[in-house]
Design a protein that fits this description.
Blueprint lengths: L2 H5 L35 E7 L8 E5 L5 H15 L3 E3 L3 E5 L3 H10 L3 E4 L3
Length: about 120
């Protein structure tokens, strides 16, 4: 008996039609729709995180309620300001290194209310 055949799904009608881009059911497809804005208290929080990164620190920025395009532009500008790399995840921005003080000053300059969270 071929073990591959047992574990390899060939075809399923369980979910119905799938989106060709994200491979989710058409009813749950998020392609082309504006992303939901994060519901929060309007305060941008900066915290340092090392968990799961081999001891390397990143600064995580949460609480920014902007559309996806503006969030991408903000992440790009913040990375350039700090001179480091980073990433835009679902609802937060990750900047390499402990850049909390630089980011706080830059975000406050852009009109955000910022708090440094954690130790």
């Amino acid at each position: 008996m071929n073990i591959r055949r047992k574990t390899h799904l060939v075809y399923s009608t369980e979910a119905g039609r799938l989106c060709p881009q994200c491979h989710r059911p058409i009813a749950d497809c998020g392609c082309g729709k504006p992303r939901r804005q994060a519901a929060g208290d309007g305060i941008v929080r900066l915290h340092r995180e090392t968990k799961g990164r081999g001891g390397k620190a990143v600064t995580v920025i949460t609480g920014i309620a902007l559309p996806e395009r503006e969030m991408r532009e903000l992440a790009r500008a913040l990375k350039q300001h700090c001179g480091v790399g980073g990433a835009l995840k679902e609802d937060h921005i990750e900047i390499q290194g402990d850049q909390r003080e630089k980011l706080k000053a830059e975000l406050e300059k852009r009109g955000f209310t910022v708090r440094i969270a954690g130790g």
